[in-house]
Amino acid sequence: MAFILKLVLYGFIANTYASPLSTLQPSQAPNIIPRQHTDDRLSYIKRTYPGIYWDEAVKCGGDNFNILAEATRMLAPFTDTAPLQRSRFSEHPAWNRFFVNDKKAKKGYGWHDSEKNQNAFLSIKSNLIQLNKWPGRGKKTRSGVHKQSTQITYTCEAPRGFDHKCRTVPGLGAFRMQPSSYDNKGWAIMFCPRFFKERYLNDITADKPKTVKELASLYSYEHILAHELLHCDIIGTKEPGTY
């Protein structure tokens, strides 16, 4: 899990070098879906992000639905791998700081050899590409359609046996459920009330650029969503292993 956290937050690091954080503006999420969920706008969200099953998300409430829709839209720039094509990303201090061994990190700033970890870095890039594509592409059934069984469900209503987690796990914003845990309907992400109290990454970084030491403070809607999506095996990501 610690590795996945580091992998997801690379989306921020990559975009840091693509555009300075000091120039980013607060997202101010638009009213993608108003309080009264009109069929035409809900249909638009479904068409735009067929990798997600949205019908359960509607039950989260209008404002919360807007947050989920905007966070999903922001996954694209958050997980953009274009900066990897333009620079030797593995040699940036921020990247290396993230992927340094935790024990070494407590003693000081260690350094990973980019050549020795080349395969791991390539796996990370591949995983980010899969994550980036999923919401807008998803996976179709053999008959060529998107169904809940091949989508990832967003929900705010946990099934029996999981309804205690949001209350008992400190600081839990969301958690993923395997198909067997979600009445065999498919993969799902359960969003706790805590999730909707977070902020967008652009809002967090709007005041001033963040230093390497402040990376842990970038706990945003996009971060949590990407983290949980990477736990859904249907996306096709693979664990590069520890190093």
Quick recap:
With 243 residues, this protein is α/β, with parallel strands linked by helices.
Spans of at least 5 consecutive residues whose pLDDT stays below 50 are: 1-31, 104-109
What spatial form do the alpha-carbon principal axes imply? globular
Helix content: 40-55%
Structural class of the helices, strands and pairings?
A: alpha/beta
Per DSSP E runs of 2 or more residues, the count of β-strands stands at 4
Radius of gyration: 18 Å
Distance between the termini: 14 Å
What is the succession of H and E elements?
A: HHEHHHHHHEHEEHH
The protein's oligomeric status is: single chain
**How many helical stretches?**
11
Strand order of the largest sheet: 1-2-4-3
The overall pLDDT, averaged over residues, is 75
Q: Characterize the largest beta sheet: strand count, sense, and whether it forms a barrel.
A: 4 strands, mixed
Q: What keyword list fits this structure?
A:
alpha/beta; 243 residues; 40% helix; disordered N terminus; single chain
Characterization of the model:
With 243 residues, the chain is α/β, with parallel strands linked by helices. 40% of the residues lie in helices and 6% in strands. The chain is built from 11 helices and 4 strands. It has a 4-stranded mixed beta sheet. Helix 1 (2-18) crosses helix 11. The two termini are 14 Å apart. Mean pLDDT is 75; it is low at 1-31 and 104-109.
